[in-house]
Design a protein that fits this description.
By secondary structure, the chain is mainly alpha-helical. It is 76% helix and 0% strand.
Length: 274
């Protein structure tokens, strides 16, 4: 789990203060994970409790700053984002209240799960939405695309991920208004079809290597397809600028999150079993 509690440049949302606070949160979380060194002494548990309390305090302060930033840019999903913050603080509060009844291994697992499943995902998905909301369409066009940091270390899977980005990138090519509908239909159809083919290739690969979390991956794939279906339903009422931003959100948030979190787990498992 320690490899997953490392700050990566792709987690940046483009606001220096918020990004620095995210890095600090990762540093505090790693301190907690590194406490466990085989022994299960009360001294180690006490140190771990102190670090988790430090994490709780810093998370609360960071969320306050993030909420102030969202208000300053009139972020439209502010209330929902604030509710997510409240939920995460409640989860940490529950963990702290149970520390005395858990051994160090259990504490480490619960903290690791919290960091990976909630905090990292929150940065990649929800905080990324804040970045996209604040970006101009011109900047979005410049920054959108495959980045080497998205690589999972498997040539075929990486090439298929790159192809997904290449298809989506065509949406940012400027065309005459009379060609807009044709352009959108073609891109969405190509992206949808290729996404399904790619997911099938991934699932076949997972079956071949007896990947233990195959069903979770299949569910994740289906969720992305469902997200795509909802996006298709909205196309008719979107202007071209909104369409491009929504498509960037679909790729940058949904697919990138899937690549960074789920697909890397596959390759990590392969490396551990070979």
């Amino acid at each position: 789990m320690q490899d997953n509690i490392i700050w990566k440049s792709e987690y940046n949302i483009g606001n220096l203060k918020i990004d620095m606070e995210h890095q600090k949160l990762f540093a505090v979380a790693r301190k907690a994970i590194n406490i466990n060194r085989l022994k299960n002494s009360e001294n180690e548990k006490q140190k771990l409790k102190e670090i988790i309390s430090e994490l709780f305090t810093y998370v609360g302060s960071h969320f306050h700053h993030e909420q102030e930033y969202m208000q300053s840019i009139d972020y439209p999903d502010y209330e929902n984002h604030k509710k997510l913050h409240k939920k995460m603080l409640a989860m940490l509060t529950t963990l702290i209240s149970k520390l005395n009844s858990l051994d160090i291994k259990e504490i480490e697992k619960k903290l690791s799960d919290f960091i990976e499943e909630y905090f990292v995902n929150h940065i990649i998905v929800e905080d990324k939405k804040i970045q996209l909301w604040g970006m101009s369409l011109e900047d979005l066009r410049k920054s959108f695309g495959w980045k080497d940091i998205y690589s999972v270390g498997d040539i075929r899977i990486d090439n298929e991920h790159k192809q997904l980005f290449d298809i989506a990138r065509e949406a940012f090519e400027v065309v005459d208004d009379n060609k807009r509908n044709e352009k959108i239909k073609t891109i969405i159809a190509d992206l949808y079809d290729y996404m399904k083919v790619h997911f099938q290739h991934e699932e076949d690969f997972m079956k071949k290597i007896n990947y233990p979390k195959l069903e979770e991956q299949q569910e994740s794939h289906q969720n992305i397809i469902n997200y795509m279906n909802e996006f298709v339903k909205k196309i008719a009422v979107l202007d071209i600028d909104s369409f491009e931003k929504e498509l960037a959100k679909l790729i940058d948030i949904t697919l990138v999150q899937h690549i960074l979190q789920e697909d890397r787990k596959i390759m990590y498992w392969v490396s551990k079993t070979n």
